# Entry
Amino acid sequence: MKCPFCGHLETQVVETRVSEEADFIRRRRQCGACDKRFTTYERPDLTFPALVKKDGRRVEYKREKLRASMNLALRKRPVSTEQVDSAIERIEEKLLALGLRELPTGRLGEFVMRELRKLDKVAYVRFASVYRSFEDIDAFKTFVDEVRK
# Structure
């Protein structure tokens, strides 16, 4: 594997760990030239459904984009990276279990909202405020009142 720091082609695996759910392998590597260490993750290469946007465009699923959306909602909230990773894993498992070639983005948004509700209610409301595009303050207030129950 190529060193991300100096570009040297020879790196050595120093440590290997299997995740708690045994769904990926984490490897610590060390460059043979600059001696810097870095981490790689080995996951199965799976095909996720294409996402169909509201305007009909089709885009490929990107884990990084999902993580960025969730992190934005979770900004300055007491939720660990491990909890977010687990939530993303559960969402991806649902996507794969559906066995669909295409999925409306709205359905993915519902999966995200369910996970955020479990993690942090403030993040859930933040995400929903953008995702659901409330028409007025009363609709938003009704939604927040439902979350409080």
